[in-house]
Design brief:
This protein has about 250 residues and is mainly alpha-helical. The chain is built from eleven helices and no strands.
Length: about 250
């Protein structure tokens, strides 16, 4: 019960931060709209419009960027001051960092699921049609990985600014090799092979297979790979997090 109260407390802290709400609700729609509009001249009269393509890739990009929300939920100075008493409460260290991770994940799950529904049924962006629930699950699993990644970097660097600064490097690499803004296959076979170290690459390829080919051949492996990455991050948190360093 104490853990549920902590999660609720952390979730309410997120809701009180307008920037975090905008980043995880309005911002993805703006990204899709702006980039889709700018690049629509490069898409013909085929079945895939610029809004369809960037609708999927920008949602994947946003789901990974939730790592930034996780670091703020965990290590933002005002949040730390308000949570100081938790470190002295009779709770395990696991509950401290896990509550931040779960509260951020709840926000991401609700926000991204709503955005996918709004995008498909209101703006007619192709998020899978009848398979939209499968795309939701893909995005939500990537969101879990993003939350775990952000929490892990906070546990390592014990400071929001430092965590975000260093975390930008793997995020940029994941995004680049994931083909979010352009297909990396055009850069050669070596780069394409390296790209498979990026969970974003797996999610992107899997999403387009499901949406346009109704192909689920790599769906479960993709979920397993990204979930495994999230579990690894959580294990690292458990090993290195010390409550006294949170004060």
């Amino acid at each position: 019960m104490n853990f549920i109260k902590i999660v609720k407390f952390d979730f309410m802290n997120i809701l009180r931060n307008p920037m975090l709400l905008i980043l995880n609700t309005v911002f993805p729609l703006i990204l899709i709209g702006v980039i889709g509009f700018v690049t629509k001249g490069g898409y013909g009269a085929g079945s895939v419009s610029s809004y369809d393509y960037y609708g999927v890739t920008m949602m994947i990009f946003t789901a990974l960027l939730i790592a930034m929300t996780a670091t703020n939920t965990f290590m933002e100075e005002k949040v730390k001051r308000g949570n100081t008493r938790i470190t002295y409460a009779p709770v395990s260290k696991t509950e401290i960092y896990l509550s931040k991770l779960i509260s951020t994940y709840i926000l991401g799950t609700v926000s991204y699921s709503v955005i996918l529904c709004v995008g498909q049924y209101l703006f007619h962006i192709n998020f899978g049609g009848k398979n939209i629930l499968y795309i939701m699950l893909l995005i939500n699993i990537l969101s879990l990985f993003g939350c775990s990644l952000g929490t892990m970097f906070c546990c390592i660097f014990k400071n929001e600014e430092a965590a975000n600064s260093v975390m930008q490097i793997p995020i940029l690499l994941f995004v680049f090799f994931g083909g979010i803004f352009f297909p990396v296959a055009s850069l050669g076979k070596i780069v394409e092979t390296i790209s498979y170290i990026s969970p974003v690459k797996w999610i992107t390829e899997c999403a387009f297979k499901v949406i346009y080919d109704n192909d689920f051949s790599i769906y479960l492996p993709t979920l397993a790979i990204v979930l495994f990455g999230a579990i690894i991050c959580i294990i690292i948190c458990e090993i290195i997090f010390k409550p006294e360093e949170y004060v």
